[in-house]
Here is the input.
Amino acid sequence: MRAPEGSSDTTATASVPTVPTVRPVIQVRGLTMSYGGVGVLHGIDLDIHRGEVFALLGPNGAGKTTTVEILEGFRRRSAGEVRVLGADPERGDDAWRGRIGLVLQSWRDHRRWRVAELLTHFATYYPDPRDPDELLALVGLTGQAGRQVDRLSGGQRRRLDVALGIVGRPELLFLDEPTTGFDPEARHEFHVLVERLARDEGVTVLLTTHDLVEAERLADRIAMLVGGRIRACGTPAELARRAAAQAEVRWTADDGTPRRERTEDPSRLVWELHRDADGPIPGLEVRRPTLEDTYLHMVHREDDGLDGTAAGTGAGAGAGEAQAA
Amino acid sequence: MRGTPMTNEVSHRPARSARSARRHWRAGFLRGGIELRHLLRNPKEMSGHLSNVVVAMLVAAYVGDDVPGTGVPMAHLVIAGFAAYLLFQIGLVNLPQMLVTEREEGVLLRLRVTPGGIPAYLVAKCLLVVVVAVGTVVLLLGATALLLDGPLPDGPGGWLTLLWVTTLGLLAVVPLGAALGAVLPNPREALALIMLPVMGLLVTSGTVFPITSLPVPVQQVASVFPLKWMAQGLRAALLPDAAQAAEAAGAWELPLVALVLTVWAVLGFLLAIPLLRRAARRESGSRLTARHRAAVRSGAAST
Here is the structure.
């Protein structure tokens, strides 16, 4: 994964040396939300920096949509402080809107329009739009330029949504379950596109997804939102390490039978195995705890009603990042 | 869209906002042009508008007599009435239906998150409605004048009346239609909710036969709504003064036509602005998803 320049420490504002006093693109402190007295978000803290791909992961009903829609300026929060691109989203004006791109999953608009026509039209709203033809090539829709929008496949439609989302050169891009219904190839191309936007153009991306593989593949950092709280936040590797699950070591014994053992310290076990065998170990395999293990652990813990100790794992706390640095 | 200026680093200078306003107007006109092109290319919608004209012509060709008590052909009264009805329908049926559909598909949300999107949308819709309305009326009057010896305004005064009644009539119904489009639930129910009262007004407003042949209480109810006055105004523009004998008051009552239509226009604007603003503000991704799910459940949309 690509790391932000300098350090991955969230608290280190000096990580972008050219702009010493850079503020996070998204800054959230103590965000709470309740509908009719029922709490949905219980004090979210987030710092998302320029050029970062940040994934918000969580089961249905965890508060992902609510969080993102507050950041997008679609909902009023109950309490807390939210700054997105330096402004309060509840007071975001047109100029602010123009710096944000949005890719939602349920868009079925402008069905009668032709692909290139739609993109060219939306370019006229922005002061410095991307070239529609280059954009079509970027999202791989050059061949569909003259096609009517409602004749596109699901994946093509979503790529068009991405093109519409970035036609105004946004600094911040919200992606809502972007690859639902994609075939593996389309998904791969989409991932390459998102990486290119973040790496080459410094676009900040906030991705909401159920898809752990996608989060792991794309995100610099992941926050796991469960029950209206951020249960863990860090790089995919850190989160995986934080899992309660142990690593699993598999190998083939001298008599040819497959063996497996769970351990906290796989390195030690492998060393011991090598020492005992005094040579190569056939079929040796070390399986690290995965992001999925962490995720399921978090969700499971919530189901049990145990309030996990989120202290130190909260976003912006920097504890996890410090370990990685 | 809230127009409140921001209190942070992106506050803009007047020159920049003038430039962006120009860009939004341009986007609106471009959008209107593109939507018009799509309409002209869509056989289903075009045939809808054209069949209205054809029905009007068939009815006009069918009625043979004169308007009772005048020497004016009944066909002329019917054509003037239909012209009023077509304007009324474009504002109060076609426009709300278009708005509700586009709301459901997410057009409104897309434009809400695009800088200047909502103003451009309104500019485009106004352009579209005006072009369609004027086009339909011109087609109706032109075709009936050529084929059925239909009525045309007599002298500059008549043309002027035609112009102002059409303009004021559109101003009376278009904002009202926009307000309806902002509150109606979904395209399927919207049509059902709108069509019944519209048809009722078509029959009771004296558009296709003299209003004096209706019971007085019905006339009084119809007088509250704009269609009666639009039709009366267009009759004033298109029919000779002798036809005034068939009016309820025995006169064209043009000042009253102007007054009632102006009141509706003001009322419509007062309703439409907050309702449209609220509709745009309420759009969000999760609402769009919820609406789509509901539409799929009711079997009205594909996934």
